[in-house]
Amino acid sequence: MNTQYKYCFIDRDGTLVKEPIDEQVDQLNKIKLVDDVIPALFKLKQANYRFVMISNQDGLGTSSFPEDQFQVCQDFILQLFKSQGIEFEAIRICPHFEVNNCDCRKPKVALLLDYLKSQTINREHSCVIGDRESDTTLAENLGIQGFKLGSEESCTWNDIVNKLINSDRIATVVRKTNETDITLSLNLDQSESINIKTGLRFYDHMLEQLFKHAGVSCNLIVNGDLDIDEHHTVEDIAITIGQAFKVALSDKIGIGRYGFTLPMDEALASIAIDLSGRAYCNVDANFSRDRIGDLPTELIPHFFRSFADSLQASVHVKIKGENDHHKVEASFKALGRALREAIRRDGVELPSTKGCL
Fold first, then answer.
1. Which residues form the catalytic set?
2. Residue 170, class by beta-carbon neighbours within 10 Å (0-12 exposed, 13-18 middle, 19+ buried)?
3. Comparing 40-54, 221-235, 253-267, which segment has the lowest mean pLDDT?
4. CB-based contacts of 104, cutoff 8 Å, min separation 6
5. What does DSSP say about strands 217-224 and 291-292: parallel, antiparallel, or unpaired?
6. Integer Cα distance of 313 and 99 in angstroms
């Protein structure tokens, strides 16, 4: 499977540098940076965005716009950004006039076909940034979000950065099999609403504890084959929850990564979690009862293992106590608290020397 990256496909004139009245940057004294562009791009770079410049340069190489005049200015612009730590992975220029009806002029996607074919774009988090309708239309044609400088929705570079980096981390996962039909919507940055209907009342209660203590909102609707057994429902919900957290966390930039010991009367649940991208689970727990309410206790370790596998996290669970209800409830609360610590935004850096999680 190809690694996917977050890309900003960025227009040049009017977006990186101010566009002169004659709409042609062919002299060095015409070059002026757009307000806040350098600090904005630096923040996006810290958040692991990659940059590609894509620009329509009408008549480049003709007598009206000699290529040497363009190149002097282009080299200066690139060196200016490089001096501030900003480099472009690729530069794509269409030199044609609109009347030429070429295949490479924005908003057509020909200049970016190699990115589309390689499937390296994380479409959910990539974007096109420009100052014209052709840029937002290009975004639509690429199937990613678009930002138009000067528009009411995203008028400045600072607005764009806030929307890309500080927006809520959300996910909706639908899992349909011959055994279960599950829809889960998750928001890691809101905690106002928790709605859970699994068909197993005690399981509902435990999952409510998990999401409440994780500090996230969710809407979980399940239709499972409970007439056969509880196993498929418990397992598939755990898988879906893990998938939803994984999608919402995206590249995990800025998270705490690690997370809890939680007492409940005589019971004590200790959970250590690492959102490492590697699945492992160890559960140390014994129960004296076969069921708590309508939930078989044999499925408690299975929930944690299915969740860890789906999330691709390392999870260690140790539960001790006398009352099985307290032990199970403490473990779900502890998982929620561990997740709260692990998904918490600590900054803009990736918490790994490896460079990925």
1. 11, 13
2. middle
3. 253-267
4. 92, 94, 96, 110, 111
5. unpaired
6. 54
Fold of 6-165: Rossmann fold (3.40.50)
How many Cβ atoms sit within 10 Å of the Cβ of residue 337? Answer: 23
Strand-pair category, 261-264 with 267-274: antiparallel
The Cβ-side half-sphere exposure at 341, using a 13 Å CA radius, reads 13
Q: How sure is the predictor about 152, in pLDDT bands with cuts at 50, 70 and 90? A: low
Return the closest-CA partner of residue 25 out of 86, 103, 78. Answer: 78
| pLDDT per position as a tens digit, 287-302 | 999 999 999 999 999 9
CA dist 119 → 153, 165, 197, 225, 300 (Å): 28, 22, 36, 37, 38
- What pLDDT score was predicted for residue 192? 82
Residue with the two structure tokens 């250590």 = 272
The set of residues, in sequence order, having a beta carbon less than 8 Å from that of 38 and lying 6+ positions away, is: 81, 84, 86
Given this model, what pLDDT does residue 322 score? 95
CA dihedral in degrees (356, 250, 39, 70; nearest 10)? 90
Tokens of 183: 């829809």
For residue 225, which of 182, 183, 180 has the smallest C-alpha distance? 180
Q: Read off the DSSP letter of residue 227.
A: T
Token output for 4: 């996917």
Residue whose entry in the numeric block shows the structure tokens 């559960």: 283
- Name the class of domain 170-343: alpha beta
Per-residue pLDDT tens digits for 237-281: 999 999 999 988 877 776 777 777 888 899 999 999 999 889 999
Task: Say how far apart CA 303 and CA 279 lie, in whole Å.
Answer: 14
Residue 331 — pLDDT band, cuts 50, 70, 90?
very high
Tell me the CA distances in angstroms from 155 to 42, 144, 151, one per residue in order: 18, 19, 5
Query: What dihedral do alpha carbons 239, 245, 246, 252 form, nearest 10°?
Result: -160
The domains of the chain are located at: 6-165, 170-343
**Measured on CA atoms in the order 113, 119, 123, 125, is the torsion positive or negative?**
negative
